[in-house]
Amino acid sequence: MRRSRVKDILASGQGGPVLLKGWVRTRRDSKGFSFLELNDGSCLGNVQALVDHSRELSPLLERLNTGAACAVAGELVASPAAGQKWEVRVSALTVYGEADPETYPLQKKRHSDEFLRTIAHLRPRTNKYGAMLRIRSEMALAVHGFFRERGFAHIHAPILTGSDCEGAGEMFRVSSLEPEAVAALSPVEREAAEFFGRAAGLTVSGQLEAEMLALALGDVYTFGPTFRAENSNTPKHAAEFWMVEPEMAFADLAEDMDLAEALVCGLVRHALTHCAEDLALFVSFVDKTLMATLTGILDKPFVRLPHAEAIRVLQASGRSFEFPVHEGSDLQTEHERFLCEEHFKSPVIVHDYPKEIKAFYMRLNDDGATVAAMDLLVPRIGELVGGSQREERLEVLSRRMAEAGLPSEPYWWYLDSRRYGSAPHAGFGLGFERLLMLVTGIANIRDVIPFPRTPRNLEF
To answer: In 3-state terms, what secondary structure has residue 381?
Structure first.
């Protein structure tokens, strides 16, 4: 018999023979029979299985406590109990894996997020994290669907790299050498002894490679893991995170902002349409304002304003910020959230930043003081998207790299793209975990990724 999913059973309009495999959420014993609540991870709901205390089934039933894995076969019938449409009258029972009730850490009660992070290998079995992971899966599918509908090619950027996209030096070095061997080598000797014959690191972005492919294929995007060796323990930062990075050939900053706004709205709309049941859990138990936040994103076009104007708004606010603002300052989370949540009450795209606070590859504007960069800010999160029109002029790019103290040798291939058939192009990066924080109302990035990697934490 083909296995049925809980999701399909709960949506079914008819009974009949059924085979269900899953995990026991609870077992309740009565005289002559027991009730099992089974969940298989396909949805929030459980299916009740009614098991007779027969000679064949009783010994198996006694092995089934909360957390145990089993299969039940029987007849799906209308349930007389309130609050549920169906139940399974069990005729056959299989025990796959027992769970000791004395040590199994997940019981029928609410557990703190801090505790659940210590058992990240088991927390997907809870309602909250099961719902989050289903939403994560659906949002990943929505990302691919969004770009497919617009004719973008999905590309794969390397995870190992010899160049730093951000120029900030916050990269994890990857080496095949034993630490003892490294200590005995000079820097030159170490470079020669490395697996790649040079220093290698985990990528902080697939952007530079995406640019190369955009200048051949047109519109492309990459969606994969990125890494940053930043010793930051804030709720928004992780050492390993996923980025959605589209790159468009023959595009300018205005088109870049248009795409970013369309992507965020499209993903929020997809979540509201396809994740309604799981979102309801987060509205009830995580953030009661979540639906208002999500629908508010779709209500009207995003506000767009230059960085200089954003600074003037902040200075005129009368607010005492922890990080003071001035003409050349970057925006901190407190500034970003003020703009979104209090002043404009809308997502905001800030553009045309001072060149000194942005990366070398961003196109220098005609004023010589700002670059064609943009950040898309949303309520509760702050920056969700960061992007720019790229500098396509070889002489300007070379000068900007020199000003940033970047040697040209490791980027020879990047500079080549400006020597041969250079064209205007633009792109951005969207932090996938931050998107999930926005969609679910979860406040900590550690709780929207299955196994978070943060400073001093590399479990599982």
So the answer is: coil
Amino acid at 297: I
Residue 83 has pLDDT above 80, yes or no: no
33 three-state secondary structure: strand
Beta-carbon-side half-sphere exposure of residue 111 (alpha carbons within 13 Å): 20
In angstroms, the CA 31 to CA 135 distance is 40
Poorest-pLDDT segment among 109-113, 114-118, 424-428: 109-113
Question: What pLDDT digit, counting tens, does each position of 122-167 carry?
Answer: 999 999 999 999 999 999 999 999 999 999 999 999 999 987 766 5
DSSP single-letter state for residue 235: T
Q: In the chain, what are the domains?
A: 6-97 (2.40.50.140), 123-168+204-447 (3.30.930.10)
Structure tokens at 275: 């994740």
Distance, CA of 196 to CA of 126 (rounded, Å): 43
CA distance 165 to 212: 13
Per the DSSP assignment, residues forming a β-bridge with 354 are: 370
Rg, the chain, Cα only? 27
d(CA 317, CA 264): 28
**Assign residue 456 a region: left if phi > 0, alpha if psi is -120 to 50, beta otherwise?**
left
- Residue 373 CB contacts under 8 Å (≥ 6 apart), including other chains: 253, 351, 352, 353, 358, 362, 386, 387, 388
b/e sequence 104-137, b meaning 16+ C-beta within 10 Å: eebeeeeeeeeebbeebeebbbebbbbbbbbbbe
Question: 117 and 447 in contact (C-beta within 8 Å)?
Answer: yes
Q: How far apart are CA 335 and CA 159, in angstroms?
A: 33
Residue 312 scores a pLDDT above 90: yes
The partner residues of 381 in beta bridges, in order of sequence, read none
| Of the listed ranges 58-62, 255-259, 306-310, 407-411, the one predicted with least confidence | 407-411
